[in-house]
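Weekend entry, working from home. Most of the wet-lab plans are on hold until the incubator is repaired, so I used the time to fold the two sequences that have been sitting in the queue since the last round of cloning. Logging both here for the record. First:
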Amino acid sequence: MIDKLLSDPWAAFWAARRTVLMGAGAGLLLAVLVCLLAPAKWEARMTIGPAGRGTGPDLSAFLPASESPTIQYLLQRVGSMAAADFAVYETLLTSPRIASSLLKDQTLKPRLGNLCGGCDADTSKLSGWLEGHVRIRPVAATQMRRITLALHDKTLATDLLRALHRLADETIRADVRLKTDQRIVYLREKMAEVVNPAQRDALVALLKEQERQSMMVGIDNDFAAEMIDPPSIPVRPVFPNPVLLLPLFILLGAAGGFGYALLRRS
């Protein structure tokens, strides 16, 4: 039979056509059973982008060439600080730090046990689960990111994405607020000690930047990442997907039937 398959594959296939059809039918039946009985898995998705604070053109280009280099440097940094916070946001989203904050959320903690064994009590397990299931993908060639999470529970999937965004953004805001307050205290102390006018001008420029940052932190808006499209669930589940499962199982069943026919004849 193997020699016949190599010399005339179509004749070998035709000879095993009944077994191939039976295998394809069995694959079709199995695919239908999977689609009917398997629990549906839904994919929650949201789109985020860098927060709009301080972004825009390079304002230092509008300053005269004789202007203080310190002020030019500060204006050039305005956009880069927001980009850096957004990069930190992406890293924090599935980190143990955010997992620990999730475990302190009394509305979500009882439901985290549905994710994995120990996810409602162990920070490392919850963080590992988040790293394996939360997907962050770029949106075309933009700075925006699409974040997805597939779960059997639609409500938990959307609530978890919303909580991850809120906790990551609040964590970055708290870190920036702490560092800004420390810098303001330090700069004010140095100004009381400095006598040189040029040094005082530099310190004043730095202090203004930190005070501006302090005001931005106090604004009750998204700080590091802005939610462009809130968490939502598509109309159809990602699993089971009949469009993919039916042809796949039919092909596997037909291949299995053909293989069985070859073994039986040889």
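Second, folded right after the first finished:
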Amino acid sequence: MIDIETPLEGVLLFEPTVYVDERGFFLERFHASRYREYGIDLPFVQDNHSRSVKGTLRGLHFQKRSPQGKLVEVVQGRVFDVVVDVRPGSTTFGQWHGVELSDENHYQLWVPPGFAHGFCALSENADLLYKCTAYYDSEDEGGIAWNDPDLDITWPVDDPLLSAKDELLPNLSTLEEEDLPLPSMIVVQ
């Protein structure tokens, strides 16, 4: 497994070792001791699977009182995956990083607790799997508008398919500190 640096502290991109032959391929999706070597030592308590059609944009989401760490990968298709640092007091607060995840590159993205996460489907269909370090709680969810002008994220779509909830998300600058992940609940990696 290769660790590819990102500009946001704690956000890690992994390129797993893939064994390919005429039968197909094999890779280890998760191996606790290997991830522990990179500081990912939180228990994973929930696995999620989402399927999106081309042009769908989901996000940017986070949880406030029980922030989730997420290990994200695409098992079918391609997405442009984005993380935004929303940790109050962080030196990279409000900065974002995007990367293409696909069933061809097999990259995995570690999104630490305290970051907003979103993605846009680039292929006709895209299936994402992500392991989470905290249970989803709809009452605890927060979010940021995908097109927040202060973030200036270079999404690969101009008019994405959005959920009704995501259409109403606010800009980061309008959020109060209590609307962001609780600093004492963020486990530093």
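Plan for Monday: verify the second prediction. The radius of gyration is 16 Å.
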